[in-house]
Structure formats: C-alpha cells, structure tokens
Design brief:
Helix content of chain A: 25-40%
Number of strands of chain A: 23
Strand order of the largest sheet of chain A: 6-9-10-22-21-20-17-11
CATH class of the domain at 297-416 in chain A: Alpha Beta
CATH architecture of the domain at 297-416 in chain A: 2-Layer Sandwich
CATH superfamily of the domain at 297-416 in chain A: GAD-like domain
Distance between the termini of chain A: 56 Å
Oligomer: homodimer
Number of helices of chain A: 17
CATH topology of the domain at 297-416 in chain A: Gyrase A, domain 2
Largest interface: A-B, 133 and 134 residues
Structural class of chain A: alpha+beta
C-alpha cells in the first residue's frame, strides 16, 4: 500500500505517545503566533491536538506558515512531546501533549468562512443549512452524527442478536386511494401512472410474515407529505420490525431491549425494566394525552364527585350534560392575576370553555374568582382531592370529558414539563381503542385497519368501546413509535372493513391483493416501528430533529444547500406523460413579470 | 411474558432433543395418511421436521386432522422422539427425529395454492411475482433472502470494524439538468417543482468529507430510470463508502476486505489476496472489455505484426487506415461450416465488418475461406501467435482497433464463458481514461466529472489519452461497482469542466453549490460503491438479480402483486400542481372505448 496520508487521529494522542513520529491531517482551528512560532489547534474527526510550527525547524515555507487560515486542510508530520506541566490543558483529552511539526503541507486552502466553526457561536438556521458541510464540522454536530450512527448500529445489534434478518422492501410502491399523504413518482415506462413512496413498509412486512420469514427488521426510509410545522420531515427513518408467532409481550420485551441498549450506548445509563405501562384510558384520565410525560406529577384528578350537588350553575350544567370537572395541582406557581388570566385564555385557545383557578392561601383560605359560588364543602373537597398545600395553584376545567382532559393535559405540559431531556422516562401505552370518530362522526381506525381487536364480537357490537392490541412507546412526552398485533384472519379483516363502512367491493378494490394474501396460511404476527430521528434528538438533548439529520429540509421542504425542489424542463416531464398545470405556470409568469 | 407460541424452530431439532417437550409452529408441507395416522412435514423459517399426528392421541378433532391441507399454518405441541433406525432420513438435518403431536391447532387455513411450494416446480415468473409471498416460501428463495441479509451484514461488519460511520443521506434531492435518468417527485408545498431520487449519494458523500466526517458508509437505495431490459431495476442497493486522506490503495484494500468477508460468509471460501489487477488498457487489449471474465483464457492477441507486409487487401486496407487485426484461439470448437458462418454473422451483428475463421487441421494444414489470400508465413504466424494446437478454431477480426477488440471480447464470452458462478474471479480494473468521446465526438467523463485525473497538465494538453484515478471491481465478467479518487481542488474541478466544454456560467448554474463547497478546505478523498443486487446474485449463482430482491419489479417496471405503478385521481395531482398530459389521457380514453 502507498504511504498512508495519516498515521494517527489528532484527538487520540496521549502522554504515552510522547516521542512517537506521527503524520496527522485535519483542519486548522484556533491559531496563535508567539514570536514567529505558530501554535495550531489541529482538528479532525477524532478530536483536537495542539501543533507547534517553529520556523526554525523549517516545517514549511515562511509564506505557507504565515498564510495559514481557519479551516485550511493541512497535513503535518512531527513528533509528539509532553507539554511542560504548567502548559498542559486539562480540558482537552490530548492536553498533556503537543506535536512539534517537522513538515507541514497545505492540502486545501479555505476562503473566509460564512460563520465560525464553534459550538458557542449562534448562527441562523437557514445559513447553517446552506453551508451544512461547515455546520457539520462543529463538534456538537459531529457528535450528533456519531450518536445517530451509534443508535442505528445498536438497534441492528439487538435485532441481529435476536435472530432478525434485515430485509429491504421496495420504496417504489402502489399508491393507495386514501394515500392523501403519499409522495408520488411518475413512471416513464407507463406514462401517466405513478408509484408512491412508502409511508411505512407495513403491508410489505406483513407479506414477509406470510412468506414465512418469521423475523424481519429494516432501518427504513419512509415518506409523508405533510405540512412540516410540527418538527417533521418529508423523509424520515424508522426501525421497523415484525415477528410471526408473536404477540404483544414479545414486541414490548424487544422494545425494552432496544431502548435499553441505545440508551446505554448514548447516555451510559442502564434503564430499569420492565418499563412502566399505562392503558390508553389511564393515560388519558391522568395526563390528558396518549403520550404522557411522566417525569413530573401534576396528574389530572376527577373533581366531578366534589360537585355532585353543586349550586354553581356552570359546573352543574356541565355535569348534567354528561361532561366532567377535572383539575390539576400546578404547585406554587406564584402567578399574578394577569398571569392566571393568561392561563384561562390559553385554555380557551385550546378549546375549553374556560379555566378556573384557585389559590390555596397560606392562611388556609382560598382565593378564586368563583370562590363565592362554591360552598363550604366544595373548596376543601377540591383541595383535598388535589392534595393542595398552602401556596399551590389549582386549575380546573369543566367541559366535555375529552376536552377537559386534553386541555389540562396540555396546560400541565406547558407549566410543568422540564426543559431538555436530562432525565429519561420511557413508558408503554397499551390497550388503545380500535376506532375513533372522525370529524364526520364515522369510525376511523386509531392505528391502522390491520390492527387486531381484542374481542371481535365486542368490536362488532360496540365498536366505540372496542379495545385493540395496539401499543405505543413513549419517551418524555413524545411518541417514539407504535405497533400492534395484526389481523391474520381474512374474516376478521373483512369485519373490520365492514365496521369502518367499507363495502366488500371497495375493500376488494383498495386492498384486494392484501386480502388475497391473507388466505394462504397467514401466521399470527405483530410488530412495531420506532422513529429514529425523534429518539436520537431526545437522547442528544437537542431542540428539534433537524439537529440529528445530516442534511434536513427546511420547514417548507426546501434544501438551501442544493436548491431542491426545483423546476425541471418540460421536455423531461413530457417523457413522463405529465406537465405542470397551466395555473401554476401562469403564476410563475406573473412572478417573473413582477421581477420576482 | 405470556406463554410463547413457539419454543423451537422445526429445523433445529436433533437426536439430542429426543424426549423434549416442544411447541412448534409453521406450515404444512407434504402430508401422508398411514391408516389414519397423519405424517406432516412441518416447515418453518429454520427448516423442516416430521410430525406424527395419531388420532389415538387425540391431538385434534378428527375433522381438523383430516382437514389439514398444504400450507395450512399450524401449531403443534408434542414430544421429540428418535425415529427407528431404518426410518431415519439422512437427507434431512432433522431426519433422525420426529415429533409426536399431543396437540395440534390450525392457526390459519390456506386456500388451494396457485403453485406448489417446491423448488423443483418451474413456475412462470409473472405468477411468481404476483404471489411473491408464496414464492418466497420456497427454500431456494428463503436462502436467497437470507444470503442477501448476510451479505449486507458482512459488509457492515467490515465497515464498522474499519471505523466507518453509517450516515444517511437524503433521498429527496435536487434534480440535475443532465439528470435524464432521474426519477422525479413532485413537491406539494412548492407546486410545479420537483425533487429527484438519487442515482447515487455521490455529492452528499463528498459533502460529508468536506464536513470532516472522514469515514462514511451507507447501504443506500439508489434509483435510475432506465429501460430495464439489461437485468436492471428502477431501485437498487449499493454499499457506498468514502474516506478522507485516502487514496486508491486504501479503497482497493477495503474492497478486498469486503469481498473476502462476504465470499467467506456466503460460500465458505477464502479468497487469495491481493486480487489481480489490469489497467483499463490491458483489459481492453486482452479481453476487449473493461469488465473481463478471467475465469478462462482465450485472450485476444494482436496479429497486426503478422500482416505487416500482407498481400491480402482486406487486411492491408485495415492496417493502412490505422485499424488492427486481432484474433483469439477459440480452442476445439468442432463447429460445422454453417456454425462457423454463424460466428461471422454474429460478428457483423456486433458491428464488425466481418470475421475470419481458420481451423488448424490435425495434419498441420489450415482450413479457412481466406487461406488462399494468405502467404506461407502468415498462416503459421497466426498459429504461433495464437498458440494453436491441432483441432483449434482461430477467429480473426480486422477493423478499427476498438471494434475488433470489443467484437472479439463479446464472441469470446459467448463461446467460452462458463455457465453459472461456481468459480469466482474477482479483479480490479484501474487507470481508466478520464474521458471518452460521445456520439457527437465531444469529450464526456468516463466515470463522473468529479474523478481526479492522474496528471492535470496532461489532461488539458491531451485529454484523449489522459488517465484518471478511477477503478472498478469486476467479478466473473460483471462490473460490481466503481470508484475513484475525487477532485478536491476547485481549480482542477473547473479545469475538468472546461475540458468538457462546460462554460463557467454553466458550471456555476449546474454545480455552483458544489464548487462553493470545495472552497472551504476540502480534504483529499476517495471512495467506491458496490452493487449489492449483482454481487448477491452471482454468489447465489442465480440467473438474474430479481431472484435476490424480495419484491422486484418486472422488466417493464411493474409490480404484479400490488399493481404499481397506477393511475391516481386528478384531484391528488392538482394538489401537486401537475396533471397527466392530454395525449396520454386521450390514449386511455381510446383504449377504454376499444374495451381494453
């Protein structure tokens, strides 16, 4: 092999290397010129080491030495030596040594940078994305990239060890009629027709179970064409897995194994197992959400019994119409009157008719705008149910039960959720309903229509209360992923479609090939998909998933680096049998005329 | 955990398990009814074991036992016992034992199958793809799926061990103006604009090098919209890797490591290293192709010197016009006159003006239609150059040198290439030209325009003979992949564009963001991409890559299982700002009117 360009990683040198000849290559960080001797912080993928370039040793021409600038890519040959004791830098892993350069070569010059490569410098995100190749040089971003790679590797190790095979499923698939969020790919060989990019490998992994594979996984790229406001990306990565002759407990045990391994590798922490579990119903009742953050209390309590006989018309009316009265103890908020009114406004914004606050005063009395409507039993009843201590602020919503729970759940988060993710609270939410009502009042599957109901007869007789074998993994208030035991019986599958109001003809047209497949000895099977982006962003304690995606899109789906998406020549579209609609072209023409 | 549905894999049971209670689950293969006792070959992902179901043990109702059909999915509880010595089946890993069922449950029935799950049954490929979930149950296909998974895992192990990080690059990228083979994805948020699916992660991996990552790899899905006649797929998988402060030797050593590991895991064979190398020029001269199959000789020889003074006008004319005369010794073909004429016709079909055959007779004379034009020195000269033995057939093409080489190279393959891939001959082809002439006579990059030339000055002065730092990995006459040392100097990159006739303005428009990136301290870097589909298909010794892709497309890009690609509602297209062109819709209408 030719002489290697690099014998050591800059960040790997230690006192034990003193005396060694090394050849390093990397980037020029901080430079100092001490009377002609140049000190360079040489940075590479492994870290940083100090390099001393003394013109007397003639490591390079005077011009080259003087010409060194930030982020020049250089190669240095030299000798490692111990720094004098008082010059050691305890903050740097290589701080006990430095490399005395005998030869320095500039491999590539760097123009002045749009921003400094320094974690302490705040840079506008648009600029960071435009120069992502520089942004990624920052140590924090290098760490995020490494953590993501480690996470996926840890996942694969667990799956491999458990006997799962990684199998690739297609990404040019059939568009489903309900695929409103499908991204489409026009076909050139069959003009005017389209492939869809997969929202998940769901049906293909079920095919693999029918094919007798038994243990499948894939780190799969998935696509969803949704508005990206909510910290989402058009493309995202999931660890997707499925097992045959498997049930919910097998899946949850596997998830614990995965989460524990990843958390240990990234955080050096061993998680307690089993993870806590809540049924969907408990999660809604206690936290007002199906993805509770259980790092803090402030649980929702049912105050309805306290008001069973109330004379306060607002509350009595809610109870009479089937709603309920829920409250949380927000603790010692110490808010001013206007702060408290702000909470009421926020509750209304979230969809509640209002929010009642009560302050438990130090003297045992209660202060509240509604105090005068409540009797002597009610105020202490609230305080006792919510375990109020002097100084606590109690917040109450009386509304339709679901609204009361969800609004308090959200306010609970806004008041109490810890910043960042130093603490990690994984939990499972199980026993999801099979169906929820959509805006039109029709039943829609809460997970997807291939999820097995716990009790088929109950599902048909009382679909609104039917429980499914679906489960989610939640971490610090974020849903990391969801899964279920799947339907393996074509008759049950047909019954679910029937309950959803899908006719046999429609089911045949939309899912015919899948229903066919179920008819050839489908094994019982179950699985899950974990979102990698979200998991890594939480474990890395960063504010959004773009920090852990090497080349993310902006919230409007653009890439400031490469300029995608972009217009293409109409000739190219013609070959695909499509064209840009006239009104869009007219808009472009108008923009151009306007000099835009 | 709940009681597991399965304690053992059917194929894992051995004599040592005799006496064990087991719970199995799998599919019903062959069944035999011996006087009421039912023998079932139970198959699961691990293999097959014989299960004995005796109605006297009442493992299931009589109806269930009698009702068992091929591919029913069943669960069996029972006891492993040794088969009587004369009943053992040495062809089966589990052949010494059988499981006596004490309980049998049908988990899923199977309708009559469209074809039998049996490697020995030939099934039409269209039907296999339509019922891929059944086709994949065949042991040979299970083995292909497993081999593919093992291959990718072995690749990852090597890359991980060498300190490479797996990093995901985007798959919704910028469409390049020359991206005639780009697949496009319309954007909903920016109507009328398009993403492209990547043909490779090339530019993003170079960005990662600029970002200081140093060691990147990815098992990447790539897309190329080409006619699929040549055993290709619209989407394919590559092991893509790149290293900074790296050169050609680093890449080739890494490739040897990968190929050796994969070959050992799949074939149990240890490859000799280093792999043979040919320069591109040698490969063309000796094999008439840049991807030679070196498992057999039949090398091309230059016969031009033999004919330096020839009186045979056809040959003299070729030499005078700068062409050459090349030949191969095809060995003892024993072809009839019409067989030999067939070879001439084939050579013409391949683009040669003709092909001359010469038979070396047992008596030392030569038989050939052109014998009478050749003098007493020429025939022995040919025979000596081609090392002809009595009975050998010698084939000669006189033409432009490139044509002569390519035609003989192809005929060599058609005559001599071994069937299948029992023997494996890896080699590297190095020192590719920087440019080739396209149909218009302009220079086009032979690899891609980011490939480093060996000598920049020579490239500018004599581009037609310039050599690049590009290299291919070849196995048994198939190119497994290619790579190069990349240009890391923006000035050199600009010079390559200039030689290609790309103006500064055009370079800026097409690659501006990339040229910008090169200006911030780009490290020297090099890399490679290996096609996974081709490699696995050769190692598995199957005739085409569809055999090693779980869910491939047909040659016209369709999926008979799910019906993709398909028409989508115009409302959905409207949201994307596009529509199907009027002439395509008119064709559809005409087809429908014609009852198609």
């Amino acid at each position: 092999m030719a002489e290697t360009m690099k014998t050591h990683g800059a960040g790997t040198l230690r006192a034990a290397d003193a005396g060694s000849e090394v050849r390093l290559a990397g980037w020029v960080g901080r430079r100092r010129d001490h009377g002609g001797v140049v000190f360079v912080d040489l940075r590479d993928a492994s870290g940083v080491v100090q390099v001393v370039l003394n013109p007397e040793d003639a490591p390079a021409s005077e011009a080259d030495l003087r010409g060194l600038r930030n982020e020049y890519c250089i190669s240095v040959t030299g000798t490692v030596r111990l720094r004098p004791g008082d010059m050691a830098n305890p903050d740097l892993p290589t701080g006990e040594v430095e490399v005395v350069g005998t030869s320095m070569t500039t491999l590539s010059a760097a123009e002045p940078l749009p921003f400094q490569i320094d974690d302490r410098v705040e840079v506008d995100e648009a600029k960071r994305l435009q120069y992502r190749y520089l942004d990624l040089r920052r140590p924090a971003m290098q760490d995020n990239v490494r953590a993501r790679s480690q996470t996926i590797r840890a996942m694969r190790t667990v799956m491999d060890d458990l006997g799962f095979m990684e199998i690739e499923t297609p990404t040019l698939i059939a568009s489903t009629p309900e695929g409103a969020r499908d991204m489409l790919v026009p076909s050139r060989l069959r003009k005017g027709t389209f492939y869809a990019l997969p929202q998940s490998p769901q049906l293909f992994k079920q095919m693999l179970m029918i094919a007798g594979v038994e243990r499948y996984y894939q780190v799969a790229r998935c696509y969803r064409d949704e508005d990206m406001r909510a910290d989402r990306q058009l493309e995202f990565t999931q660890l997707d897995f499925e097992g045959s002759f498997w049930g919910q407990e097998d899946v949850l045990a596997t998830l614990e194994e995965i989460a524990t391994r990843v958390t240990r590798d990234l955080r050096g922490v061993d998680l307690d197992r089993p993870f806590p579990r809540l049924t969907w119903h408990e999660a809604m009742e206690r936290y007002g959400t199906d993805k509770p953050d259980i790092r803090f209390g402030m649980e929702i309590a049912d105050l309805s019994p306290v008001f069973a006989e109330t004379g306060f018309n607002a509350f009595a009316g809610v109870l009479a119409s089937g709603g309920s009265i829920r409250g949380i103890n927000a603790g010692g908020l110490g808010l001013s009157r206007s702060g408290l009114d702000g909470l009421s406004a926020r509750a209304q914004e979230l969809g509640a008719k209002g929010l009642v606050w009560i302050i438990a005063e130090e003297d045992g009395t209660f202060r509240s705008p509604v105090a005068k409507f409540l009797n002597d039993a009610e105020l202490p009843g609230i305080a006792s149910t919510l375990k109020a201590a002097p100084g606590d602020t109690l917040l109450i919503v009386a509304d339709e039960t679901r609204t009361a729970l969800e609004v308090l759940g959200q306010i609970r988060l806004e008041i109490g959720q810890p910043d960042g993710h130093d603490e990690l609270a994984y939990l499972f939410v199980v026993d999801f309903p099979v169906f929820e009502r959509n805006e039109d009042g029709d039943f829609a599957p809460l997970h997807h229509p291939f999820t097995a109901p716990v009790d088929v007869r109950q599902m048909r007789e009382d679909p609104g209360h039917a429980i499914s074998k679906a489960y989610d993994l939640v971490l610090n208030g974020s849903e990391l992923g969801s899964g279920s035991v799947r339907i393996h019986d074509p008759i049950v599958q047909a019954q679910v479609f029937e309950t959803l109001g899908i006719s046999d003809e429609e089911a045949e047209r939309r899912f015919g090939w899948f229903l066919d497949a179920l008819r050839f000895g489908t094994p019982p099977h179950a699985g899950f998909a974990i979102g990698v982006d979200r998991l890594v962003s939480i474990l890395q304690n960063v504010p959004n998933i773009r920090e852990v995606i090497p080349f993310p899109k902006t919230q409007s789906g653009g890439d400031p680096l490469t300029g995608s998406p972009s217009r293409v020549e109409s000739k190219q579209l013609e070959e695909l049998g499509i064209e840009v609609r006239a009104e869009v072209r007219a808009e472009w023409a108008a923009d151009e005329a306007a000099g835009d």
